[in-house]
Automatic annotation (TrEMBL):
Protein name: Staygreen protein domain-containing protein
TM regions (residue ranges): none
Similarity field: Belongs to the staygreen family.
Signal sequence interval, chain numbering: none
UniProt domain Staygreen protein: residue ranges: 67-216
């Protein structure tokens, strides 16, 4: 996930480098385009679709899903009451990632630790919490894709695809880090996983249902 942010920003930096020959254009030879506006809009739209396809394919090829290693996961339980707490709600998770060591830290609490979330928009932390929707338990996962600094669409595209690719790793960390909960409540494996991507761009500001937890953790995304 940290790789996604650095790679996206690196690519964004060089995505719109001006041509070195821009000042050598003979302006007297410029002729206004006679193409109909509808064709111009269609051309721009097709180029954007091709560009987005290129970015998503690049994200797929440049990175492979990280393999979960229990030895690299540190679990932090916030509050003494959580050690004896057997309930499901309220229960929240914050998963943070170290770019240098690839170590993961899972914070388990009955409230979202706002202090830890400071600067969320500049991090790759993932937040999750148990919710009851229409009488059914659901795991809601939140990923920050872009904003409020209005990141370039290239960065948002990369972050969205990387978060999606690493979602099974996130869920495995939750299953392992809070294993006592799932031992006591095995039916939670049948709970739906809803992933909320937060972005200033409407395209990536979305919710996806990943199906039952037991499938989502293996990368078998539901509908």
């Amino acid at each position: 996930m940290g790789y996604a942010s650095s790679m996206a920003c690196h690519c964004a930096q060089y995505a719109f480098v001006p041509s070195a020959q821009k000042n050598n254009i003979d302006k007297t030879n410029l002729v206004p385009s006679k193409r109909p506006m509808s064709l111009l809009i269609s051309s721009i739209s097709n180029k954007r679709d091709s560009y987005n396809t290129f970015v998503s394919e690049a994200a797929r090829l440049l990175t492979s899903p990280a393999r979960f290693e229990a030895s690299k996961l540190k679990v932090v339980v916030m509050g003494k009451e959580m050690n004896k707490y057997a309930g499901i709600i309220p229960r929240t998770y914050i998963l943070s990632h170290c770019d240098f060591t690839a170590n993961l830290t899972l914070t388990v609490s009955n409230v979202i630790n706002l202090e830890q979330l400071k600067g969320w928009y500049s991090k790759d932390d993932v937040v999750a919490e148990w919710k009851k929707v229409n009488g059914e338990m659901c795991l809601h996962v939140h990923c920050f894709v872009s904003g409020p600094n209005l990141l370039l669409e290239l960065a948002a595209e990369f972050r969205y695809h990387i978060f999606s690719k690493e979602m099974p790793l996130v869920l495995k960390a939750v299953l392992h880090g809070d294993s006592i909960l799932f031992t006591e409540h095995p039916d939670l494996l049948d709970s739906l996983v809803r992933v909320y991507f937060h972005s200033s761009l409407p395209k990536y500001n979305r919710m996806e249902c990943w199906g039952p937890l037991r499938d989502a953790v293996e990368g078998r995304q539901g509908s």
